[in-house]
Amino acid sequence: MAADLDTAAGRNALLAACAEPDILVTNNAGPAPGTFADWDHDAWLAALEANLLAPVHLISAVVEGMRRRRFGRIVNITSAVVKTPRFGLSLSTTARTGLTAFAKGLQRETVADNVTINNLLPQHIDTGRQQEMARRMMHDRGISFEEARTLQTRMVRARRLGAPHELGDACAYLCSAQASFISGQNLQVDGGSYDALL
Questions:
Q1: Considering all CA atoms of the chain, what is the largest pairwise distance in Å, rounded to the nearest integer?
Q2: Distance CA 125, CA 107 (A)
Q3: Within a domain: residue 65?
């Protein structure tokens, strides 16, 4: 079913359709890139609502049931910018880093009940968001769409964009019984592009 995760009514509709899920995967669109001049109070509130509070509300609604049933898998799809902040993506980075901190703290309590909470940090996955970013590059640099896509690919160590199913496969693993000893982690799905050791 379709629902607006940014509203209580949308979240309640999802929970009414599946009141006791064993698996919760949170994901929401990121705010548009920008600068200080673009980010008024309402822009900050919208980013926090979509990328911090909406997932927190969903997690809060289902986690105790998971603990009682002694099985639960929660995966938050955030962004690689949680580990490598970029100023133009500060709305996204700030909200999603807050979600990362919330999840890390909560999993310390839930993992003893076989409820794991992890985060996937995608970057350069070939979705509509990447096409949107390519169009922004076209506008900012005066280049063609194909040139922008080539530049995107060059940013990835694997020299290609990730396929959505590759992110989905990583998520499926974290939701499996086999991943029961993995919790509180931030798994980068970025074609080897993250340069730091830890």
A1: 56
A2: 27
A3: yes
